[in-house]
Amino acid sequence: MRLLLKYLILVSLIVNSVFLTGCWDALPVENRIFCIAIGVDWLPEEPHYEITFLNPLVEETRSEQSRARTIRAHSISEAIAIFQHTSSHYMSFGILSVLVIGEEASKQKQSFTIDDLFSFPDLRPNAYIIVAKGNAKALLSVMPPENQRMGLYLRDLLDRANNQRDSPPPTLHEYVIRMMTPGMDALTTMVGPIGSLDPRATGQKTGGDGGGEVDQSEGGGSQGGQSTPEKDVEIMGAAVWQGDIVVGQLTLPETQYLSLAQGTAKGMLLQMLFAPDERLFPQANRMVTLIEQETASWDLTVMEGVPHYRLTLKVRSSPQNYEGTSDLSKSENSELLEQIMALNIAQNILASLQKITAMGSDPLCLGQQLRLKYPDLWDPQNWGENIKNSQFKVECEVTIRNIGLQILRIEPVNKKPN
Amino acid sequence: MHGNSIHGDTNVVKGVGVVNLWQKIKDLLDGDDYIEDKHSQVPLQGFANDLKYLKSTLGHALDFVTREFQLGVTGKRVAVLYIKSLADETKIASEIVLPLTSLAALIDDPDVRHKPHEAKQVLSASNITELTDLKQAIDGLLIGHTIVLVDGLRVALDIDSRAKLGRSTTAAEIETTILGSKVAFVEDCEANLSLIRQGVHSPKLCIEKFMFGSTDSKRAFLLYIQDLAAPDMISELQERLQAVQVNELKEINYLQSIIGISPLSPFPQAVYTERPDRVTGNLLEGRLAILLDGSPEALVLPIGFSDLFQSPADYYNHSLVTVLMRGLRFLGFLLATTLPAAYVAAVTYNYELLPTSLVFAVASARSGIPIPPIIEALAMVVVVDILQEGATRLPSKIGQTVGVVGGFVLGQAVIQARLVSPLVVIVVAVSVIGSFATPDYRISGLIRLLRYSLLLASAALSGIGIAAVWFAVLTHMASIEILGIPYLRPVAPLRLSSMSDYIFRKPYRGANPDQSDRLDKEQHL
Amino acid sequence: MKAKPSITTFQYGILIVGALIANGIFTLPRVVSQDAGRSAWVVIAFVGLVVFGIAALAHLVASHYPGQDPAEWSLTLLGPVLGRLWLFSYLIKSCFFAVLTAKIYAAIVTSRMLLTTPSSVIAAIVLIVSVMAVLAKLGGLARFSEVSVYVWLPLLTLFVQIIEHDQFYLLRPIFGDASVSDLFKASRQAAYSFAGFDILLFAYPHLHKQKAPLRTVLWAMVFVTAVYVLTTIAATTFLGLEQMTRILAPTLTILSIAETSIVERIDSIALFLWMGIVVITAATQLYMGTRALQGIIKGVSYHKTIMTLGSFLLVITWGDTPLREVVAVSAIFGDFDLSFVAISVVVFLVLIYIKKASQKNAPFT
After folding, report:
1. How many independent structural domains does chain C possess?
2. A218 and A284 share a domain?
3. Closest Cα of chain B to A42: distance in Å?
4. How confident is the model at residue B15 (pLDDT cuts 50, 70, 90)?
5. Do A34 and B457 touch (CB under 8 A)?
6. Using CB atoms, which residue from C112, C169, C176 is nearest to A121?
7. Beta-carbon neighbour count of residue C57 at 10 Å?
């Protein structure tokens, strides 16, 4: 009997504690409004920030539509608060796919924006962070092909880029690590819409008073207004960061060469542009090569207070579209091609390195090498300036593994009629 | 001592052996030692008094028969008593009455003392017990035995003369398997014992008899295999059985609580099985089994939680197939208990755990539904449970209609009316299907209890609530010990040797059954 | 009264693991890295070694009284008054510890998932389940611990996958960031994560076969230390030192980043599954407190003591405490706990040997 009483007390305690909790945090999924993408744009006038929230329309089960809502505010948290105030649903960031920073906004400090976002514990830390060529709002308003949801379409595009090591886009958490760690800077993918950027063609409203919602357009939808002419987006390169500010841009090929320098280019299709060479490239001088394997090793010496970095690169690749006339099955021709490729790669990497260091950015973690090898010379506060003095030397060795099948065209012989 | 009783206080029916009635009568008439039965409640007090007592106790029943006659010229009176509706009169006539009349003739022969050999062949009955307690005599009469009282004998003779009543062995109806034996127990304990004997050809099979019920006494038999079952376990169960004091014991299902095997726990701690092959398998693993007159099931204990997911068919299939099947059953159990709660937790709290496309599907399915997810899920679960209960008890033809109507109502109309989302119907359906995967149907009650508890907990505290309930249940399971054997064995305490028949079943490679894993309180610790 | 053998040697080790692991699995990398920087994992390994030494001494004390736990032999060694005083201190320490464990877990849950739910509700649920576990007695508690540890283990494999080989430089230089005093301070911060190993004093008499249990203590301590070191290395290489020292529960942050094809936010799942090890930690403390109380008040029943103690703890757990404050208190408390146990063990050993020596020199009777 006593044992029964004890169990009853225990069970009632448990049951009461369960029921008395009141389900404080219960929020059914239909009372939430999901945000699959956020765009951050900068305006010269107050309140300066124009935040675009891309929300999928989940009521429409068959269509893949999203709604883009733009709000002007002093910060992203203020924009969210304004949104909540005007919406019956609760904004949720658990399935956030992409954070898009507009080109102008990227030149402002992003740490506050990131801080605001990370205050939401359900935020998806594996969301990508990218910089939009032009306007984040315009990018998110594009109607992607095959009637997909824009945020998810962007995510798929970036997933493919990640897999192909083609300007691998960082996620939010990777960006934060690099933003916070001295001697590491981020390199984020730059994405732009293809087609007209004339807002008049989209029927979108612009302008408005400071603060509050600006407009609500059906990005990726066809409700009302004219359909947007932008049909697709593409990766246009990379934004170069110094801490939490973008200091420059790289083209897509430059980004690819930097990937090579980082040693993360395995599986990448490298687009190469050669100077005309009568031996191998008498006509076409473009070639795409698959980087099958590569090793990149860095070495550092400091001479007279100046860091000298030496990169030794070994690349094994397979040309994909060699259109020259030389027979690459002959060793002298393939060796020549290897030399030309090595020189091309080395020169381009050097150019990319000089470009980013001139901006004061360090996405290759060169500062960490200095910290480890020469801790006395390491000055984390001023590394953005000190890196500009760095000197580089690149040595590259290319091995061609597979030249593919070269088809020889056989011209027919003209026969005289009998 | 008569028979090989292990503890000496109980009557042990060995099942074989012919007792020389004449030799006993002779010895007793010559004044051998009086055999005192320590449990005697109504001791014999002489032929006339004993006969009067028995007549007064059972004489009010029309089927109670008393045949009295005298033995030869000595005039010794003999009374043969039996209950006509239970006993086999033909057997009584041929094996008892007729030999006794022959005995009467022999008794007059002064040479009989020099021809004990012929005299021994008098009675051909095979199962004769000497009683000194009239209460035991009444118990024997009530199960179809014949009592013989002989004037001058200080014992009453209890002879098994039961008629074959009830149904013959049939196929198992509840625990069906595709392969293997199909036969099931019946209400007759003797028949059940013979079924078990057919499966266990071991001289070490021990069968002990207990009588339960003061107003409606029934026999129970405790079975185990000596040297396989742990002595501690045997003695503990024997003590518990001996301590049972009930007026009546209708079914063996009541016995588990009565003998004090965690009566408050909803977790099955014994297996009730209608299959002899299951009982023999468990006996060979060192477990104990109990049979009860009138119950077509055997009680096997102790068991662990993992035993609830084992089926006799596992031993007829390939070991890899068995692994898959057992894994599926356990998965079914988890789905049955936790899936509705997980649905409520995901939809109400932790949507971020779901893949993005599934979040959209869930949100669009839930849009426009007027009731909160917890009420939606609870309502569906309650309705399905009510349907299940109804379908179980209704005649099969009506039960099918209930199933169809219920399915139509639940599956179609309620979704079209937008009262619940299609997703919750799927979730509840999968949960119910999962509950069918477990071979022991008694676990269905546990599944329902857990399902409701987890649902309520998940609605209050999402996955934390689910985890809290599961861990609370785990503490309870960890506390259960059945006859000293932990319920969570072989996982906790971890016993790798027992893992060969846990989720996995080690393939048979000429394995010596004597070396199979046995339940041993000493060893498993 | 001789303790009834009810646990195996493996369960003995699991109890030690379970009593420790929840203290450090959530917050240890950050707590130690704040002072030790990149040397955090070395400091943790060192502290693990020291704690093993203390545990070995504790084991030695327990082995002198094979059938009794501290609730009994402390009174024998220290006398009735001093023994009770010691047991009372033990009781207070255990109660405080159990509450702290529940509060840390509750604060983590409410800061990451259930934002508006009062953390005292979560803490109360943890304590209720702990009471249930202790009601099952040491045998049941040991079985519960085994299963909870099995449930906790699989997610650890993710940490091995997560360690990025090309970011190992973030761990170097190992001793470049911190001075000796910083390392010492960090080691004292790490002490909390190893508190609770004194369960071996109470569990030793219940061992079924007292065969090589010191080896069991060794592997348990090595395992716990290895887990702590692994999670610290993973946190440092994956998150970077600067970010990691700003996150209160870096282990969970790592899990929130790890992805599988079916489930994304594994940190939420970890919070659900790891409730078991939190319960073990709180339950072992509760068990020790119960036994201490039984030692102080002779004749009181086990079940009544647990229910009383559990109800008292439920009352004092009430109230929300932010995670930062709870972690700060735990760091101070851990230092005290380790010192208390270490000093007690040394004193007991000395007393045991004095007693033995005096018995040897005693005249023949």
Report:
1. 1
2. no
3. 29
4. very low
5. no
6. C112
7. 16
Distance from CA of C195 to the nearest CA of A (A): 28
pLDDT tens per residue, range C215-241: 899 999 999 999 999 999 999 988 888
Chain B interface residues facing chain A, Cβ-Cβ under 8 Å? 264, 347-349, 351-352, 356, 359-364, 366-369, 372-373, 456-457, 459-462, 465, 468, 472
Q: Rounded to an integer, what distance in angstroms lies between the CA atom of residue B264 and that of residue B262?
A: 5
Rounded to a whole number of angstroms, the distance from the CA of B371 to the nearest CA of chain A is 10
Q: pLDDT tens for residues B394-450?
A: 777 776 777 777 776 777 888 888 889 999 999 999 999 999 888 877 788 899 999
From A250, A284, A306, give the residue that closes a domain: A250
Q: Do A90 and A129 belong together in one domain?
A: yes
pLDDT in tens, B233-279: 899 899 888 887 777 777 777 777 777 776 778 898 888 888 888 89
Average pLDDT over residues A347-351: 94
State yes or no: pLDDT of B115 exceeds 50: no
Tell me the CATH number at C111: 1.20.1740.10
- The number of distinct structural domains making up chain A is 2
Query: What's the domain range around C112?
Result: 9-344
Q: Which residues of B touch C150 (CB under 8 A)?
A: 491
Asked which of A250, A271, A289 is the last residue of a domain, the reply is: A250
Structural domain includes residue A20: no
| A303 in the same domain as A220 | no
Under the banding of pLDDT at 50, 70 and 90, the label for residue A407 is low
pLDDT at A289 over 70: yes
Q: Chain B: list its partners (3+ Cβ pairs within 8 Å).
A: A, C
- The pTM of the full predicted model, rounded to 2 decimals, is 0.84
Residue C364 within a domain: no
Instruction: Return the residue in A7, A13, A30 with the most chain B beta carbons within 10 A, the one to mutate for interface testing.
Output: A30
> Mean per-residue pLDDT for A277-285?
72
Give the best residue of B354, B357, B471, B521 to mutate against chain C (max C CB count within 10 A): B471
Flag whether the ipTM exceeds 0.85.
yes
| Residue A164, domain extent | 29-250
Sequence ranges of the domains in chain B: 21-159, 189-303, 315-486
Edge-to-edge strands, sheet with A286-303: A269-273, A286-303, A306-319, A391-400
**Is the CB of residue A38 less than 8 Å from the CB of residue A76?**
yes
A88 with A236, same domain? yes
Does A94 contact B348 at a Cβ distance shorter than 8 Å?
no
Q: Which chains touch A (3 or more CB pairs under 8 A)?
A: B, C
Same domain, A304 and A204: no
- Is the peptide bond between C173 and the residue preceding it cis, with omega within 30 degrees of 0? yes
Note the pLDDT of residue A395.
95
Alpha-carbon distance values, B460 to A18, B466, C165, C250 (Å):
6, 9, 42, 27
Q: Is residue A96 one of the residues assigned to a domain?
A: yes
* Rounded Cα distance, C49 and B391, in Å: 64
* Same-domain status, A242 and A262: no
A410 pLDDT more than 70: no
Please list, in sequence order, all residues whose beta carbon lies within 8 angstroms of the beta carbon of residue B226, skipping any fewer than 6 positions away: B6, B204, B205, B206
Which residues lie closer than 8 Å to B366 by C-beta, 6 or more apart?
A28, A29, A30, B347, B373, B421, B423
> Are A260 and A112 contained in the same domain?
no
Judging contacts by C-beta atoms under 8 Å, the chain B residues touching residue A15 are 456
From the list A13, A21, A173, the residue facing C128 with the nearest CB is A13
Considering the domain boundaries, does residue A222 fall inside one?
A: yes
Average pLDDT over residues A171-200: 82
Task: Give the pairing of strands A90-92 and A32-34.
Answer: parallel
- At B222, list the tokens: 């405790």
Q: In whole angstroms, what is the distance from residue A284 CA to residue A279 CA?
A: 12
> Which of C112, C117, C259 lies nearest to residue A24, judging by beta carbons?
C117
Write the CB contacts of C346 (distance below 8 Å, at least 6 apart in sequence): C57
Which among A18, A34, A58 has the least Cβ separation from residue B460? A18
Contact C282, C70 (CB under 8 A): no
Interchain contact A4–B (C-beta under 8 A)? yes
Residue A221 lies in a domain: yes
Quick check: A17 and C121 CB within 8 A?
A: yes
Is residue B494 less than 8 Å (CB to CB) from chain C?
yes
